[in-house]
Amino acid sequence: MNNYYLDLHVLQTVPPSCINRDDTGSPKTAVYGGVTRARVSSQAWKHAMRKMFTQIFSEEQMGVRTKSPVNLIVKELEQLGYEGKVEKAAAEALKKGGIKLNSKDNKSDALFFMSRMQARKLAELIVAKEEDAKVYKAALADFPAIDIALFGRMVASDPSLNFDAAAQVAHSISTHEVRNEYDYFTAVDDLAPEDNAGAGHLGTVEFHSATLYRYATVNLRELKELLEADTAEAVKGFVKAFLLSMPTGKQNTFANRTAPDFAYITFRKDQPVNLAGAFEKPIFTRKDGYAKKSVQALEEYAKKTYEAFVDGPQEEYCIGAKGEHSENRVSLGGFLEILEKRICEYCEEE
Which residues of 26-64 are buried (b: 16+ CB within 10 A; e: fewer)? Predict the structure, then answer.
């Protein structure tokens, strides 16, 4: 089967916010093109996507990241009516599969990403009194959940259990320069005496606002090899979650949840193409805002890149603001319908 990539380029404006903080509580930033940009880490947005996945996919399709994988197998053993020492049997099954556990509490040293189907298969092997360690390892090497197939899994104790991520998510950066600001706030003691003019609490919170360029890509061939019939459903869920999810940092303070201004989505056969270079020279404006100029810069840069270095995409669509590709402008719902058809067609090609 040929390689096929789905590239998602998103421009999204967020008002005053602090959606992803560093170790000091400040909004994350990065220097790009010689100026400071707002930044949201890929980890923060992937976490938000996984939370939205729980609304899109069934529990059985989702993986669990935990230091207590024993508990997942125990639950499956109890459902199967296993009458032995369930925790001991579950721990032994994981060890046979290549997972190192602490002898005191049967917890793994690092978080282990495990699908519920993998837990069920191990439980079935325990009930069947299987002794071959290779069979247990095979159960952990197969049956990945949708989020494991998309985001990958690393097992330091046994690299043979690793899953390469079929999707890549870039750190989001602002298309323009930002400068963090501070909000000074006070809280009043409701039971303070009437003659007390002081505040019960004083504090500050750092924030900024930005138009962000966000990028992600999915290797459809790799995902098909892992998920087979569930590929189309997985990609549709990934696209929906990438476009509509939002990290929750300081959300109660700023209520900053917005929808994208613009999404440019392409199908490619050659390689993924990140278009962040459109904003290496920061967008500058005094009164017209950043979103419109960012859309223009993205489309102009895409055209130059296709003419000079890589072929244009097989297909391209845009959602939201009107731009150069307005003839291929669709709604999110309309694109998801197209996406399901295209994935079925692309994955059948050899």
Answer: ebbbeebbeebbbbbbbebbbebbbebbeebbeeebbbb
